[in-house]
Specification:
The chain has 547 residues and is of the alpha+beta class. It has 20 helices and 11 strands.
Amino acid sequence: MVAPDFETHEVGNQVPPRTGANLYVSDPVLAALVEDLPQPVVDGLTQHGAQWGSAEMADLARLANTVLPHLKTHDASGRRVDLVEFHPAYHALMRRSVGAGLHASIWDAVGDESNVRAVARGARIYMTAQVELGHLGPLSLTSASVASLGHAQPLAEAWLPLLRSRRYDSRPVPTGQKTGALIGFATTEKQGGSDLRASSTRADSMGDGTFRLVGHKWFVSAPMSDALLVLAQTLEGLSLFLVPRFQADGKRNPLKMMRLKDKLGTRSNAAAEIELPGSIGVMVGEPGRGVSTIAETVTLLRVDDALAATGVARAALAEAVHVVRHRRAFGSPLIDQALMTRVLADMALDVTAATALVFRLAEAVDRSQDNPAEAAFARLMTPVVKYWVAKIAPAIVMEAMECAGGNAYVEDSLLARLARDVLALPLADGPGNVLSLDVLRVLRRSPEPLEAVLKVIEDGLGSAARSTLNVLRAATAVALADEGSARILTEQLAMTVAAAALRRRFPSVIADAFLETRLGKPWRSTYGMLDARFDARAFVDYVVPRM
């Protein structure tokens, strides 16, 4: 007999939702990496983890990626308005993240967080990215843009109070009426891509300290921001400008949004193609020095990209482990089957190493002001870390989807969204080749960054580092002579520093397993390559404990 509600049978062997877990308390990897922070900071991270691990935040993330941003070019009377309308869920995510200071805390932190700004904010970025990646774009851009504004003190003084505000104000009104502000980026053009110097947008002086910009920008992230940082050509060369949405007299600055990009992932956040038909801007930094003025901003964006990539990788691993703990196949729980456990353990090694690596970079950022060696370390390792972490995160998400099976391939699954979103991170702020070329540029300018990195490796690995240091010196010499081998050096630096970071913070067996399988053997392209000498189940349970 068929039941009245048309159910044919009772379904078992299904996975309960993975919601309601505190993203800090359930993550011993993160806890180990921030254990030296002042207790009030740790308490704040615990609260952040509870909020962002809640079912409410998961539902807001789902809604923000289901009802997508919409471009409204004109109002009911035919006036040009160029507005992007978002679902209320997006604004709810933004309010919480702005309230947590993700857009500003490295510039205004005081008290317990004052000396650990990058690490504390990094932990919040890492947890937030596990839930919703797209809305982090405008927050990261705003945070990084402050570094560029530092080259124009009057602009910094005018904008910093609004940029530091913990109030999210999405209203399209002049800055004098705002309670908080955000800044976006408009640097990429059709013909140039990553080659910023190929920009054809021009800026003509108005004689009163402002410039009129005419041109086209191909990919503008966070176009609804209160101002955009724009690269444009002047008589002196490529220069940087701040272009606000409203002019000093309160009138709309002419910025025409032509269309929104139909992106593969990070769909909650808008990206637009815009035209500058005589938009008014103010120069930031020296004329003709636009690329160097924006350099520190790009560096900070790359650190955020790496933090976000580790967060996405962590979420994918946790989702996969959750599934295999609850599913049975071929007569036994999946978690008890050797092949599955070794795949998960292998993934856990990369996730733990990537997280240790990116937080070591965040530590260096915090120490850079007072420690030249840490500043040198950060200069070289920022493109290295962004390169490797952004490369492995998509592979981890794909493997997690295999662990979870066909249910992960439908849009109801978190893993489906993670799979789309994570692909943005290798592209953002410099793809692999650009990052590798930046590594070579740093090495050519000075020997100090390499020596600082080698010292960190030696301190972390001890006697085991001797032969490794020789290998890295040789690989550096090869890469400087043969630009085509730069990726090999970049990956070697990333994995070796990751191993040193693991040895510093985690049980030695984890660092040993990573060293042997990543640096002690030929390159591998898939997961599940641990042999029986390592306790794969112990690795999985350590990195993703059962809650």
